[in-house]
Design a protein that fits this description.
The complex is a heterodimer of chains A (661) and B (155). With 661 residues, chain A is α+β, with helices and mostly antiparallel strands. Chain A is built from 19 helices and 11 strands. Helices cover 61% and strands 11% of the residues of chain A. Chain B folds into 2 domains: 1-34; 37-146, Beta Barrel (OB fold (Dihydrolipoamide Acetyltransferase, E2P)), CATH 2.40.50. Helices cover 31% and strands 30% of the residues of chain B. Chain B has a 5-stranded mixed barrel with strand order 2-4-5-7-6. The chains are: A alpha+beta (661), B alpha+beta (155).
Amino acid sequence: MNPELGQIALILALLLSGLQCVLPIVGAWRGSKPLMATAPMLAVGQGVFVALAFGILMWSFWINDFSVAYVAQNSNLDLPWFYKLSAVWGAHEGSLLLWMLILNLWTVALVAVLGNRLPQAFFARVVGVLGFVAFGFLLYMITTSNPFLRLFPVPANGADLNPVLQDPGLVFHPPTLYMGYVGFSVAFAFAIAALLGGELKSTWVRWARPWTNVAWGFLTLGIVAGSAWAYYELGWGGWWFWDPVENASFMPWLIGAALIHAQAITDKRDGLRAWTLLLSIFGFAFSLLGTFLVRSGLLTSVHAFAFAPSRGIFILVYLAVVIGGSLLLYALRAPKVTGGKSFALASRETLMVIGNLMLTVACAMVLLGTLYPLVGEALNIGRISVGPPYFGPLFMILMTPLVLALPFGPLSHWGKADLKVWTRALVRIVALAVAAGIIGFVLGARTFLELLGITASVWVMAGVAMFALKRWREAPRGKRYPFEMLGMMLAHFGIGVFIAGAILTRSMSVEQDVSMKPGSNVQVGSYDFHFNGVTDTPGPNYHAQQGTVIVSRNGRQVVVLHPQKRTYAGGQVQTEAAIQAGVFRDLYVSLGDPIGDDAWSLRVYDKPFVRWIWGGGVLMMLGGFAVVLDRRFRLKKVREPEAAGTQPDTGAPRKLAEGQT
Amino acid sequence: MNPVRKRRLIITLLILGAVAIATGLSVFALQQNMTYLYSPTEVDAGKAPHHGQFRLGGIVKEGSIHRVPGSLTTDFVITDRFQNIPVQYTGILPDLFRVGQSTITTGKMENGTFVATTVLAKHDETYMPPQVEQAIVKAREENRIPKTAQGGGAP
């Protein structure tokens, strides 16, 4: 298939997205049903063309069409087929196309699920806002980052995909992360549509909630996948580096977590309307900022591609338009749509507000640390880097109130103070956490960090367990755990698991860099590592030096590990760590360099509980997904026959008459 | 004051207090934990901290990598084509560490040698930290680098 067709498809998609941005919004403004009715058609049409472009690029990779510059730079005849296909998003241009494709997936899903269930004007505005987002990105792609550029003369073979990216991580990490990033555009579009339309009720928040939860679930999965990938592929055995690009994905995650809770309050108690609107805007703004930070090459990072100033400036302008425009709209219209009930000080709302506050402040803290080097450079203060010593302790300090308050949120009542509930829960949770600490101590935990990890984790889990028990006793059978509640419990329990993993890995890991000759042993923790030397092993598109390490404990063999040092065709070297993964500990060996006399340097780790970090993340993700299944979010088809002209009776928001604005 | 107002006042005060504490902590932590990046020229001119930790960026000088036999210690020289700084590192070097590679090391000066605790080499070969690139461009303008010294990238 012809790559130029892909180019044409992108241009057509751009035109459609322009129309999708203008026609439905004008239609909603003028009350024109035919114009509003264009929304689903334009959205689907745009989706078809972007999918076509994506398919053509993928096809070019599949048939090794090196006349396409992007394919020539990122693929190779010897590349295994699954990496050929995922190489589509292995560099700048293609990853933008993936971004676009996923935006269209979300939009089309929105059309399919809510197309005839929402009031037409509101839905038209939502689709219009998504059209605006798509227009900006398509324009950016076509003007600065065209993936279909041709290359003459056509090279006989491609330059190969960066070896770091030749990993299953590439197949999963970018798509799931983008599902999350881009998914926040839906909550954003709902908020902007509500502001544009001057929605007096906050019913729209209930429609938006499932989408926010799914997006956050995907973002969690994407971050978990990225963290696990860095853990085994970069060969350092760390799982989080506070790298600018990690921070770029973490900021929308923090805002997203806050938004999920704020939306719940607005949905159920009609409070915090203004805050929910603001978080919806910021959630997506941080997604855009993340894309900008990663793609502009301004920051030094694993993800930074070569810097092209025009690209950076375009995204910066786009960012300014989207964020500035939304905030301006917010300032103008928020007083109209906000309001709602207030609540007592010791209520569930207060605890959720505290949580929200800590999450947003943590996000601000991460933002400050991430951007400070850029600011410092711009102001000529010097070239600064801000690393883990800044982020780590501050994040722990900021999360302490959140973790302390977390068990009490679900246990307390909406709207009213009940200190007795709190004191009773407090006594039990403290008792459980202390008991866990004592058990940990008996089992051999001695350092402060280890005990802290155990108690903090049990603190959170005990809260979830008590809530589960309370529901079991008080709620009628069959209504004990609706999906919304189940999602909350899963996610909160996941936080407990994560805390245990993060703190225990940090305090209990044994990490050693050693030099070993074949036949020699090294003792790490309670494990004995026996090095059997290095042999040459061919791979599909690389040549590997493969070490053999026999791990035993108390004289009994546990596992044989084969860490590799791969040399790819282009001369790039890539270390592949060998990991024995387990629920309670990972044994991790990676090869360093030959250091003479057959000896090699090796990195040998014993990492207890490291899987719990990602296990916790996966539980949080499941929590986000489970919420969607709740009956609360099932909408009837509310679109009345066009002629009736009355308001739907299901509590859909009343529109302000447009003349009043 | 009516109860609603009182409650709002308390909540607002709580929020302001939390934000103030967080800002204070952040600024304090930033000041404590920033590490500055210096080029060998700047280090030679005495601009870098004499005792504290900083980052040294440049490229690994040709023919300067020496392993101390039987140990994990490696000696090499970081250069920006104006000045050279000897570096000592004990541990496993990253995959892309080699002669001519742009590298950022973190550590401190001890008796004229930069003792590094971490060594980073860029994973993307065509990519160079902007800071190092500036120094190299400056060096090239003054004809200190032969054109061939730069590694190849994508076609």
